[in-house]
Structure formats: structure tokens, C-alpha cells
UniProtKB/TrEMBL annotation:
<comment type="subunit">
    <text>Part of the 50S ribosomal subunit; part of the 5S rRNA/L5/L18/L25 subcomplex. Contacts the 5S rRNA. Binds to the 5S rRNA independently of L5 and L18.</text>
</comment>
<dbReference type="GO" id="GO:0006412">
    <property type="term" value="P:translation"/>
</dbReference>
<keyword id="KW-0699">rRNA-binding</keyword>
<dbReference type="InterPro" id="IPR029751">
    <property type="entry name" value="Ribosomal_L25_dom"/>
</dbReference>
<dbReference type="InterPro" id="IPR011035">
    <property type="entry name" value="Ribosomal_bL25/Gln-tRNA_synth"/>
</dbReference>
<feature type="domain" description="Large ribosomal subunit protein bL25 beta">
    <location>
        <begin position="100"/>
        <end position="180"/>
    </location>
</feature>
<dbReference type="Pfam" id="PF14693">
    <property type="entry name" value="Ribosomal_TL5_C"/>
</dbReference>
<dbReference type="Pfam" id="PF01386">
    <property type="entry name" value="Ribosomal_L25p"/>
</dbReference>
<dbReference type="InterPro" id="IPR020930">
    <property type="entry name" value="Ribosomal_uL5_bac-type"/>
</dbReference>
<keyword id="KW-0689">Ribosomal protein</keyword>
<feature type="domain" description="Large ribosomal subunit protein bL25 L25">
    <location>
        <begin position="6"/>
        <end position="92"/>
    </location>
</feature>
<dbReference type="GO" id="GO:0003735">
    <property type="term" value="F:structural constituent of ribosome"/>
</dbReference>
<keyword id="KW-0687">Ribonucleoprotein</keyword>
<keyword id="KW-0694">RNA-binding</keyword>
<dbReference type="GO" id="GO:0008097">
    <property type="term" value="F:5S rRNA binding"/>
</dbReference>
<dbReference type="InterPro" id="IPR001021">
    <property type="entry name" value="Ribosomal_bL25_long"/>
</dbReference>
<dbReference type="InterPro" id="IPR037121">
    <property type="entry name" value="Ribosomal_bL25_C"/>
</dbReference>
Length: 201
């Protein structure tokens, strides 16, 4: 999985007044936790999170705090201001190479469906899927090949390739399906009506 580097600074004061001052200065209060070590409170410029937050893709994060130490993490939680949309707070979870973690990973559709080419409509039921893996094995995408989907067919999680990771969904979870379009349905009805009429002659 691709990674984004966030450069920040540790902070000692975590009170409301200090936090408000940080936000007014364009900084985001953050906390990094995980493992046996105490949680680390830090701040980083709000603009540095643009490539992490405002994207449909997911990334791991390398947090650098200016003391020569960098830590691998994932975004665990984020809070926005209800009116302005400003990032108010972010929680990160520290990654350990030997411990599996769970993340939601976007689904990427590949191939050209036979059903879509015949006039059907592709519905993507799951835009993201919950994946569990070691940090090194986290995928950027879960690929859904729709090549063999005929009109009316469904693609289930059990049909997806899972290399070194697990999908945490029930076997009957539908990832996507090809529905019959209104135009195709109308054409089929007209064809059936025409065939019925010609049969009466």
C-alpha cells in the first residue's frame, strides 16, 4: 500500500485553550496510539493531510516528528467542524510489522462486462471492502473483474482474488451486479409482443 509522509511536532499542552490556538494557526491536533507505549500527542499543518483525507484512495502514513524518529501508522478517526468543514482532530494507530490490522480498501473494477456491452447497467454495491492483513500486505485496491458478468449476474466477495489478505465479509456479500436496463427491458418486451403477434397470424 502506498504511504504518505506527515511532518509534525510533539505537543505537551492538550487543554482546550491550547488546542483552539493551534487550530487558529492552521494546525491540526493529533494523537498516535497503539502498542504498549503511551499515546503521542502532536500537531501538523492542515494542508499536509490533503492527500490523505480528500481522496477516495487509502494510504498508510509515516509520521515524522522532527526528532529523527519516524513511525508507521494508519488513520483511525477524523473529526470535522460541522459548519466550516475544518479538520478538528485526527487519531492515528501505530503499525507493527508482525501484527495484522483491519482497513477499508476501495474496490477497483476491471474488465468489460458482457452484460453491460449487451445493454445492461453495472451497479457497484460495495465501493470499499474491509480487509485484514499484515501492514506489508495491505493492498491499494481490491480488484473486481467483471468480464464474465452476463446481464442479471452478480459478483460475490468469494469471486475476488485475495493475495496475502483476508476479506472480512460474509460469502453472500454482493460486490457488484449487472442489472437489465430499462431500454433493454423495453426492447425485450416489444420483441416478445411482436413474436406473440406474429404467432397469431
Amino acid at each position: 500500500m502506498k504511504s504518505i509522509t506527515i511532518k509534525g511536532s510533539e505537543r505537551e499542552s492538550v487543554g482546550k485553550v491550547a488546542t483552539k490556538a493551534l487550530r487558529n494557526a492552521g494546525l491540526v491536533p493529533c494523537v498516535l496510539y497503539g502498542g504498549t507505549e503511551p499515546a503521542i500527542h502532536f500537531t501538523a499543518e492542515e494542508k499536509s493531510f490533503k492527500g490523505l483525507v480528500y481522496t477516495p484512495n487509502v494510504h498508510t502514513v509515516v509520521i515524522e516528528l522532527g526528532n529523527g524518529v519516524s513511525m508507521n501508522a494508519i488513520l483511525q478517526d477524523i473529526q470535522f467542524h460541522p459548519v466550516s468543514g475544518q479538520i478538528m482532530h485526527m487519531d492515528f494507530y501505530k503499525l507493527h510489522e508482525d501484527k495484522e490490522i483491519t482497513m477499508e480498501v476501495p474496490v477497483k473494477v476491471t474488465g468489460n462486462s458482457k452484460g453491460v456491452m449487451a445493454g445492461g447497467v453495472l451497479n457497484l454495491n460495495q465501493r470499499k471492502l474491509k480487509v485484514r492483513a499484515l501492514p506489508a500486505n495491505l493492498p491499494d485496491f481490491v480488484y473486481a473483474d467483471i468480464t464474465n458478468l452476463e446481464m442479471g449476474n452478480k459478483l460475490y466477495v468469494t469471486d475476488l482474488p485475495t493475495d496475502n489478505f483476508k476479506l472480512l465479509h460474509s460469502d453472500n456479500t454482493v460486490v457488484c451486479q449487472v442489472r437489465i436496463s430499462r431500454a433493454a427491458m423495453k426492447a425485450a418486451q416489444e420483441a416478445a409482443k411482436a413474436a406473440k403477434s406474429s404467432g397469431k397470424k
